[in-house]
Amino acid sequence: MKPFWRTLFIIGVVVISFTQMLYYRSLPYKLCGKNPVNHRQYTFGVTRGEVDTSNGTEQALQAADFKSEYPSLEDCHRIIEKGREGVNASFEAIPDLTEDEQVVDVLRKGCVEFNNRYHFYSKTHEDTYSTADELRFSIAFTILIHKDLHQVASLLSTIYRTQHIYCIHVDAKSPKAMIEGIKLMSECFPNVFESSKRESVVYASFSRLKAEITCMEDLLSLPINMYNWKYLINLSGQDYPTRTNLEIVNQLKSMDGRMCLSGTTELNEVAVNRVKYIHVLKNETVENKTVQVLQQTKEILGPPPYNVTIAKNIAYAVFTRDFLQWALVDSDEGRALLNWTSYTRTPDEHFWATLHLYPKSPQFSRTISWRNIARTILWKYKGTDKYCRGYWQHNSCVFGAGGLWWISERQELFVNKFDIKYDSIPTRCLRLMIDDRTKGLVSDRNPHKQPMKI
Q: Is 175 helix (H, G, I), strand (E, B) or coil?
C-alpha cells in the first residue's frame, strides 16, 4: 500500500473509532440526563471490607477509583458487582442541588426545552422501543409530592408513556415554585394533571389518605374510552422504578385481574391504639413556627361500620380499577369506613386492607400477607446498614450509591426512598439501567425477565 493511501486509511480508522466511541458513551444518556439542569462532577471510590494489618495498623485496601462527569452504565454495574462480592462500598455522596426555581425557569422556556432536558419518552421513542402490548396497556399513577421538583421531574420522565395517565397531588404547604412547576409541567402533557383539590398533608393524619383518594377519584371520573386503565399504582415523590415499562406491564398482565395489597390481620399494641382512640389535629410551636400535629386523645373511638375486621397494610399497592370504583364511589361500606377512619392514626395503613378483606369487595381475599410487588422499603433492623449506605429517615433507608446492589436484586416495581439532594447517583444509575434494558442493549443483565408470583 502506498504511503499516501496507508496514511489516509489510518486516519479513517481513527476517525471511525473515535466516532463510535462517542456514540457508545452517549447511549446510556441518549434518553436520560445527558444535559441535566444542574452540572455536577462525579467521583467515587470503592474500598474492600478486608484490611491490611501487615504493618500493625488497619489500612483500607483501595479497590477502584472511577472519575467522570457522571457515572457511565459500566460504572453503575461495577458499583453493583462490588457490593454483590461483599466489598464494603463507601462511596462519596454526590448531591444534585438543583432548586425548584431552576426547574421552573426551564419550564417557562417551553415544553420542548423541558422534555429535552429531562428526556421524556416521545411517540417516536415509543414506536422504536415499545411493544404492541405495551402501547395497548394503560396504567394509572398517583404521585403525592411536597418537595424537590427536580426529583419529581426525573421520576415522571422515567415512568412516562403516552398511553398512561398521571395524577399529581401537591401538598398545599409546598413552596410556590413547586406549585407553579407542577402546574406548568401538567400543561406539557395531555395525560398529566393536578388533583382537583390540594390537601395540607400532616404526617400520619387522614389528610394523607384524603390527598391520594382525591387523585384516585379524579382518575375514576375520566371516561373509559379516553384511558382504559385497569390498574393503578400509587407513588410518592421519593420513589423510583427498578423495572422497565415492559416489565411493569408484563407483571400486571400476569396478575390476571387481581390486585396486590400487602399487610396483616395481626395487630400489635401500637396498631391497635391507632384505631382504638380518637386522634385529632392540634397546633404546636416547633422552632418558632406553628404547625399541626396529630395527637391521640383519651376518647375511645366507636366500633368500625359494617362489623368489618380492621387489618394493617402497606400504604402502597397495585390497585384494580373495579376495587377502587367500589371502595370510593359505589359502596356504602367504603364511604362509611372512610368517615370512621378519618379519626384514626395512619388511616392509609389500614383502610385498604380492611376493605380488601371484606366479603362484598370485588377483590375479596380471605387472607393477606406481606408479599408486595408494588414497592419495597429497606427498614432499619439489625444488620441492614450494610444494604443502605445512605441515611435513615423514620426507620427507613434513604439510599446512597453503595445500596445499589441491594436494589438491583429486588423484584418489586418501585423502591423507596431516594433523596437526590443527598446523593443523586442511585437514581441516575437506575435510569441508565432502565433505558439500557428498554433499548435491549444488555438483555443478559436483565434480572426481571419473569414476573413475580403473587
A: coil
Q: Which cell goes with 343?
A: 379519626
Are the C-beta atoms of 114 and 106 separated by less than 8 Å? yes
Total-model pTM: 0.83
Would the CA dihedral through 404, 405, 408, 412 be positive or negative?
Answer: negative
How far is residue 44's CA from residue 282's CA, in Å, rounded to a whole number? Answer: 46
Torsion sign, CA atoms 214, 220, 223, 229: positive
Is residue 453 reached through a cis peptide bond, with omega within 30 degrees of 0 on the bond before it?
A: no
User: What is the helix (H) or strand (E) element at residue 165, kind and residue range?
Assistant: strand 165-170
The residue assigned the cell 441516575 is: 428
**Residue 76 backbone dihedrals phi, psi, to 5 degrees:** -65, -45
Q: Tell me how far apart the alpha carbons of residues 390 and 401 are, in angstroms, rounded to a whole number.
A: 8
Domain ranges of the chain: 100-260+373-445, 263-356
Buried b / exposed e across 105-127, counting CB within 10 Å, b at 16+?
A: ebbeeeeeebbebbbbbeeebbe
User: How many Cα atoms within 13 Å fall on the side-chain side of residue 220?
Assistant: 18
Enumerate the active-site residues.
349
Cell numbers at 270, concatenated:
401500637
Please list the rounded mean pLDDT of every run of 10 residues in the chain (454 residues).
53 42 28 28 32 36 40 90 70 90 98 95 85 94 97 98 97 97 98 98 97 98 94 98 95 95 96 98 91 97 97 97 98 98 98 98 95 94 87 94 92 96 95 92 58 62
Place of cell 382525591: 214
Label the pairing between strands 277-286 and 318-320.
unpaired
Q: For the CA atoms of the chain, what is the radius of gyration?
A: 24
